[in-house]
């Protein structure tokens, strides 16, 4: 038996950003069954998402973390700059302990993983559209522990967002020139960030970064 559809004061507009069409279609189906009068937009990468955000206003953006080209965190930052009032719910293939805290600090209204039950997607959308933040019980507990201890649990949590973006790209085996092109900065600046990353994470070489990124599931 289907659950009754949720009613909002007006039709809601949701932008789904994911590079897999099947995932976008699945989320549209689930949310269409749960909400009345919903309108969807779609984007398969960060650049197209920003184009969609620049053209019209959205109530909610469902954003993947790992897509070709512009990364999820960078896309999140630029979406928040373009539409500060929009709610962004991260729907990621990465476990919570890898991206959730960083995404929430950057302004996301919630974080769920793609292996979560579909019912949780509906609940997360309801919560974020209602003005709240949505996190799992386990993530909420970890956040409280982090606040109480005041310490980072894993080395990459000590990195700034820009350092984290660059570290992930080194983890994918990219060169300073390739990273600079993607982030629109020069290779010398990338190398400066690399030195900071190695120091903060107590690593020595690019191979160490690649190994770390793979072991912690930070690259696809």
Description:
The protein is about 50% helix and about 10% strand. By secondary structure, the protein is α/β, with parallel strands linked by helices. It folds into two domains: about 10-145, Rossmann fold, CATH 3.40.50; about 155-215, Arc Repressor Mutant, subunit A, CATH 1.10.10.10. Strands 2-1-3-4-5 form a five-stranded parallel β-sheet, with helices on both faces. The N and C termini lie far apart (about 35 Å). The model has no long low-confidence stretch (mean pLDDT about 85).
Task: State the total count of DSSP E strands.
Answer: 5
Number of helical elements: 10
- The largest sheet has its strands arranged as 2-1-3-4-5
CATH architecture name of the largest domain: 3-Layer(aba) Sandwich
What is the CATH topology assignment of the largest domain? Rossmann fold
- Could you say how many structural domains there are in total? 2
What number is the mean pLDDT?
86
Into which percent range does the helicity of residues fall? 40-55%
* Quaternary organisation of the protein chains: single chain
Distance between the termini: 37 Å
Radius of gyration: 18 Å
The outline comes out as globular
Tags for this entry?
5-stranded parallel sheet, 220 residues, Rossmann fold, single chain, Arc Repressor Mutant, subunit A, 5 strands, 52% helix, globular, alpha/beta, 10 helices
Topology:
Elements: E1 12-17, H1 21-34, E2 38-43, H2 46-55, E3 60-63, H3 72-82, E4 87-92, H4 96-105, E5 110-113, H5 118-129, H6 137-149, H7 161-171, H8 176-183, H9 187-201, H10 206-215
What's the short story on this structure?
Helix content is about 50%, strand content about 10%. It has about 220 residues and is α/β, with parallel strands linked by helices.
């Amino acid at each position: 038996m289907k659950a009754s559809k949720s009613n909002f004061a007006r039709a809601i507009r949701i932008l789904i950003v994911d590079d897999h069409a099947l995932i976008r279609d699945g989320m549209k189906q689930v949310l269409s069954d749960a909400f009345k009068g919903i309108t969807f937009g779609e984007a398969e990468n960060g650049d197209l998402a920003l184009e969609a955000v620049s053209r019209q206003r959205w109530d909610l953006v469902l954003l993947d973390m790992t897509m070709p080209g512009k990364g999820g965190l960078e896309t999140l930052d630029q979406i928040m700059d373009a539409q500060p009032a929009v709610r962004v719910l991260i729907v990621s293939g990465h476990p919570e302990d890898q991206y959730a805290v960083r995404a929430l600090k950057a302004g996301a209204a919630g974080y769920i993983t793609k292996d979560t039950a579909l019912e949780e997607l509906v609940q997360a959308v309801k919560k974020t559209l209602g003005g709240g933040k949505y996190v799992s019980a386990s993530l909420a507990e970890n956040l409280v522990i982090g606040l109480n201890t005041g310490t980072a649990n894993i080395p990459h949590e000590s990195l700034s967002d820009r350092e984290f973006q660059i570290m992930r790209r080194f983890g994918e085996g990219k060169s300073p020139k390739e990273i600079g092109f993607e982030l629109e900065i020069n290779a010398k600046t990338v190398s400066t960030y690399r030195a900071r990353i190695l120091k903060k994470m107590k690593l020595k070489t690019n191979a160490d970064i690649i190994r770390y990124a793979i072991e912690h599931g930070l690259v696809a």
